[in-house]
Structure formats: structure tokens, C-alpha cells
């Protein structure tokens, strides 16, 4: 099953969902603002992704800037970062694609094709 955490007012999310539909990929849509992943889920997704945890932060979001996270993240532990991400879905980079093959924050067609097994 393919799960996509999105925010319905995000243009990148809209583009990603349209791409999934165009490619005939069935998916479960989860509103990242109201149904964001908890800390345990985020830890598992981060591990499954193989990416640095910092890649899971929505660095262009207002909340990220308001909290001055660019300055604070370097001194935070992995646990503190995942707890922070779990505190508000708007801190999580979106769309967040979750498949059996892996996890990818953001929309990059090449990475999504790989995770979805599309040639």
C-alpha cells in the first residue's frame, strides 16, 4: 500500500497527487496537519528512508522559521528532532511518500518512480 502525507493547500502536494493519479497508483491520503505521524512512526519512517533526519523538516515553512530551527537542529538529538516533528505536522516536509520499498519526503519524480517500481 502507498500512503502519502499531504497538506491540501500545498501546491507540491497537489502536483504529487496528480502525478500518482496520472500513473494509476492507488494511494491512501493522510492530511499531515490533522493526521501527522507520531514520534514512533517518524523514527521508523526515518530509518526506512536511509536519509538524514533533517530532510524530514519542512525548512520553507513558517513554523520552522518562527521556531528558528535552522539554528537549533544542529544541537538537537535524534529523539528531540523526532519528538519535535511529531508535535506539529506542519514541520514535516511534504508530501511524504511511504511505500513497502521505502520513504521519501518531498516530491522528486525520479525517487518516487524508484519507490513505486515504475520504469
TrEMBL record:
PROSITE patterns: ARSC. Pfam families: ArsC (PF03960). SUPFAM superfamilies: Thioredoxin-like. InterPro entries: Arsenate_reductase-like, Thioredoxin-like_sf, Tscrpt_reg_Spx/MgsR. Belongs to the ArsC family. This is Arsenate reductase family protein.
Amino acid at each position: 500500500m502507498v500512503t502519502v502525507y499531504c497538506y491540501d493547500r500545498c501546491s507540491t502536494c497537489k502536483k504529487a497527487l496528480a502525478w500518482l493519479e496520472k500513473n494509476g497508483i492507488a494511494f491512501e491520503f493522510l492530511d499531515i496537519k490533522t493526521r501527522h505521524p507520531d514520534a514512533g512512526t517518524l523514527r521508523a519512517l526515518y530509518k526506512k528512508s536511509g536519509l538524514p533526519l533533517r530532510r524530514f523538516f519542512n525548512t520553507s515553512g513558517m513554523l520552522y522559521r518562527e521556531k528558528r530551527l535552522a539554528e537549533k537542529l544542529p544541537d538537537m538529538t535524534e529523539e528531540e528532532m523526532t519528538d519535535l516533528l511529531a508535535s506539529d505536522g506542519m514541520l514535516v516536509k511534504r508530501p511524504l511518500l511511504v511505500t513497502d520499498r521505502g520513504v521519501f519526503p518531498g516530491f522528486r519524480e525520479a525517487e518516487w518512480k524508484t519507490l513505486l517500481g515504475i520504469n
